[in-house]
């Protein structure tokens, strides 16, 4: 019933409307309140939760245009997993993770490291993986 909630369970903890990260307590509260309401709202900005994948992507792209670095990472996750009607495109995902990493999104470095460690989309480079891991720690 709530595709954005399904994405939360799959590991994307950002709301597409406002980009706020949801902790486990917020997810629990959202699930509890959403079951009681016909039209659940975001626990942060109180916008209606989007159930249309096209609208979710529009909101993410709008946040990117506004300079939201987390939205760049979130769009990368969409391409990586093929969420929200996006095609699964790991090359595009890696490009977005690298851009997000340059903008300061720490989690992006983990994703970049895994691509280089596994030799996925790019040539395997363990040193690059270590460099990404160190960047995340510093």
Quick tags:
7 helices; 0% strand; 138 residues; mainly alpha; Serine Threonine Protein Phosphatase 5, Tetratricopeptide repeat; 2 domains; disordered N terminus
Short description:
The chain is about 60% helix and about 0% strand. The chain has about 140 residues and is an all-alpha fold.
Question: Can you describe this structure?
Answer:
The structure is a single chain. With 138 residues, this protein is mostly helical. The protein folds into two domains: 1-51, no CATH class; 53-138, Alpha Horseshoe (Serine Threonine Protein Phosphatase 5, Tetratricopeptide repeat). The protein has helices at residues 3-9, 24-34, 53-65, 69-81, 90-103, 106-118, 126-137. Helix 4 packs antiparallel against helix 5 and helix 6 runs antiparallel to helix 7. The N and C termini lie far apart (40 Å).
């Amino acid at each position: 019933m709530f595709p954005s909630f399904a994405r939360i369970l799959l590991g994307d903890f950002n709301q597409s409307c406002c980009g706020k990260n949801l902790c486990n307590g917020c997810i629990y509260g959202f699930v509890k309140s959403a079951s009681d309401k016909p039209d659940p709202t975001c626990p942060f900005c109180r916008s209606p939760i989007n159930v249309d994948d096209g609208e979710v992507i529009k909101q993410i792209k709008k946040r990117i245009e506004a300079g939201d670095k987390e939205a760049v990472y979130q769009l990368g996750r969409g391409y990586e997993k093929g969420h929200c009607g996006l095609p699964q495109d790991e090359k595009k995902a890696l490009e977005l993770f690298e851009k997000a990493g340059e903008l300061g999104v720490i989690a992006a470095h983990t994703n970049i490291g895994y691509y280089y460690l596994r030799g996925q989309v790019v040539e395997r480079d363990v040193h690059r993986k270590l460099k990404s891991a160190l960047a995340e720690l510093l």
